[in-house]
Structure formats: C-alpha cells, structure tokens
Amino acid sequence: MKKVFTEVFFRKIGLLTVASILFLIFVGGLVRITGSGMGCPDWPKCFGYYIPPTDISELTWTPQKEYKKGQMIIKDERLWEAKQKFTTTQQFDTANWAVYTKHDYALFNPTHTYIEWVNRMVSVLVGIFMVLTVLSSFQFWKTKKSIVFLSIASFFLTLFQAWLGAKVVESNLDGLKISVHMLAAFAVVGLVMIAVFKKHTAVGVERINNLKWFRAAVYCTIVLTLLQIFYGTQVREAIDHWRDANANNTSLAWVNAVDYVLASHKALSVFVMAAMLVLFAIAHNRLEKTNAVYKYIAVGMVLTAVQIALGSVNVFFNMPAISQVLHVTLAGTLVASQFYVAILLYNNHKEVKKSSKKNK
Ligand code: HEM
Asked: Is 81 helix (H, G, I), strand (E, B) or coil?
C-alpha cells in the first residue's frame, strides 16, 4: 500500500496548518470589527444548532414544533434552552426550558451569527489540519522524536485555544481572555513552524551565523515583537473599556483616554523597526539576495513599516475597519516571518556544529 503520511505530506499539511491559523486570525479580526463575537451565544453549537438559524422565526417559540436538547429560543429578552427533545403544545411550558445563565446576551442578528459561525468553521479546519500534522509526524518517531513532541504540544495548545474560545463567548467577550486567546494563537504558529521546518536549512547562511550575536539579535527581535503584540492587545482592551463607558461617543476622544498604553505601543514599534533595520543591514551586507534568510528579514522589515502605517491610520482616522483587520493579521504574518528566519539560522548552526564534530 502506498504510504500516505510521507515527509512531503507532513511539510505540506504543516504549512497548511500555519496558513490556516493566520487566516483564522484574519477572520477573528472580521468578527471583531463587525461586532459579531456574540453572534453565536453558545459553544460549540450555535443557538443549539450545527447550522445556525437564518431567521428570527426559527428562534421564536412555536406551538407543535419539535425541539432537540440544547436548541434555543429567545423569549422575554432571554435565551431559553430545551432541556430535552420534546414537541411543544399550544402553551409555553417552563418545565421544558431552562434559562441560559452563562451570560445575559439575547439578541439575534443573522449577519453576526453567520460571521461567527464561519469563524468557527475555519477553526474546525485548523483542528483537522492539526490532527493530520500530528498523525503524519509519527513517521519521524525513530529519526527525530522532537518533531513528534512539538506537533503533539501544538495540538494540545490548539485544544486549549478551543476551550478558551468557549470561555471568551461565555464571558461575553472579556478583554483579557481575548488577549490570551490571541497570544496563544501565535504560540501555536511558532510550535508548528519549529516542527515543520525542523529539517530546513538555508544554504550559505554561515556567513551571517559566524556573527554569534546575530542569532541572539533575531531572538531578541522576536521577543520585542511579541511584547509589542501584547501591548497592542492592551490598547484594544483599553479602547473597548472606554467604548463600553462612552457608548454613544463616536469621536476620536478614545485616543486621549488610552494615551498611556498607546504611548508604550508606539514607542515599542520604533524599537521593533530599528531592530529589523539592523538585521536587514547585516543580511544585506553578508548574504546573497536570493537567500531565504535575507528574503524573510526583508519581508519582516516591510511588514513592520506597514504595521506602523496601519497603526497610524487607526489612530488618525478613528479605526477604519480595513486597517484594524489588516493590523492584527499582519502582526501574525510578521511574527511568522521572524520565526522562519530564527528556525533557519538555528538549524544551520546545529548542522555546522554537528559536521565540525564529525570532522574532528
Ligand atoms: C511593529 C509594529 C506594530 C505591531 C506588530 C502591532 C500589533 C498590534 C496588535 C497585535 C494589536 C492587537 C489587535 C487586537 O487585539 O485586535 C494592535 C492594536 C493596535 N495598535 Fe498596533 N502594532 C504596531 C504598531 C502600531 C503603531 C505604530 C500604532 C499607532 C501609531 C498602533 C496602533 C494600534 C491601535 C490603535 C490598536 C488598537 C486596534 C484595535 O482595537 O483593533 N500600532 N497592534
């Protein structure tokens, strides 16, 4: 029988996992800017259905209708859940229904519901890719166990993400939970990339790896960028708090209200940009322009500049939806490009060390 889980399959499915997580971050951004986070009030189903309702009539109590356990209705501005499978009579009977108590959000907006549902479908896809990554990683059990362990670790982190996704909905979109959810997504991207590219090395990077501090500088830039992303989430939380307290105020006054955290976010972006410029200058001097390390450092540098431009658009133009979504999506892409550079340099360093040991 032809082997399904080949090395090529592992690499392709791993890349697909990384790409799908970045896409999920984009869809998550869409959920946020359209305010669709509560489009499905429960989890993992949506109003108790696998395929959510499209019309409010489906969520309105109806006589002589069969309801399955967990299916919901909206009545008296509250969500009610069917306690078991039953058929309604002519009268609403509270004995068959339980008020949903995890939160008190009870509105139906079909657009929000479907955007949130697509978000969940994309996460299911990520889950499937993740499982395939783990299964196909077992081919390396005898040759490179670390690939298996890294794949399993990213799988468990993805499970944690799914659980956290439920908690985000249950908490009616608590800011801190959203932030942890986002940072954990970057951790999954990192782990999967380390596993997938464990055997990748770029030819000719010795010239840059000879500078011992260069690898350390790349790692520090990643830490700085992750810190910047953390501060970004703090800006978002602060803006949300301000908006909750000033519901009808559409002016730019939030900029002053979040000034202290926005100032740190802006200042850190200067450091990230400076670090990327230094890395680029050295790569430019020492590497061929076709070298993967050179290319991905250049990509990272451009992405950092674009991030600064998008952040400025957010501040000066009162957060246009498009720049808000791009700002969060490109943050993910920036980190992924930095991870790739770090992985290539680290693998090359290990290989050189191994071969010099052999030659001794
Ligand atoms: C290296 C550069 C940057 C990176 C990697 C970055 C990353 C991020 C991230 C990950 C978020 C969180 C988004 C969310 O939680 O939904 C964020 C939010 C934000 N950032 Fe940045 N940022 C950068 C530069 C800037 C700059 C220079 C500014 C302003 C001049 C800025 C303004 C903002 C604003 C206003 C938000 C809140 C957006 C929202 O609520 O959706 N950012 N940033």
From this structure: strand
pLDDT digits (tens, 9 = 90+) for 257-311: 788 899 999 999 999 999 999 999 999 999 999 999 999 999 999 999 999 999 9
Cα–Cα distance between 33 and 307 in angstroms, integer?
18
Kindly report the CATH number that applies to the domain delimited by 201-360.
1.20.120
Task: Kindly compute the dihedral angle of the four CA atoms of residues 237, 240, 245, 249, in this order, to the nearest 10 degrees.
Answer: 140
The pLDDT of residue 324: 94
**DSSP 3-state assignment of 281?**
helix
> In which order are the strands placed within the sheet that holds 78-82?
72-75, 78-82, 97-99
Domain boundaries, the chain: 1-39+109-199, 40-107, 201-360
How far is ligand 1, taken at its centre, from the CA of residue 310, in Å? 8
Q: Which of 66, 65, 11, 74 is nearest to 38 (CA)?
A: 74
Class assignment of domain 40-107?
mainly beta
Residues at CB less than 6 angstroms from ligand 1: 32, 182, 225, 228-229, 232-233, 235-236, 239, 265-266, 269, 272, 304, 307-308, 311-312, 314-315, 324, 327-328, 331, 334
Task: Find the mean pLDDT for residues 147-152.
Answer: 94
150 vs 196: CA distance, rounded Å: 9
Across the range 32-57, mean pLDDT stands at 89
Task: Find, among 101, 112, 118, the residue nearest to 51 by Cα.
Answer: 118
Ligand 1 probe mutation, 323, 327, 334, most atoms within 8 A of CB = 327
Q: Quote the pTM value.
A: 0.86
Which of 26, 226, 314, 322 to mutate to test ligand 1, by most ligand atoms within 8 A of the CB atom? 314
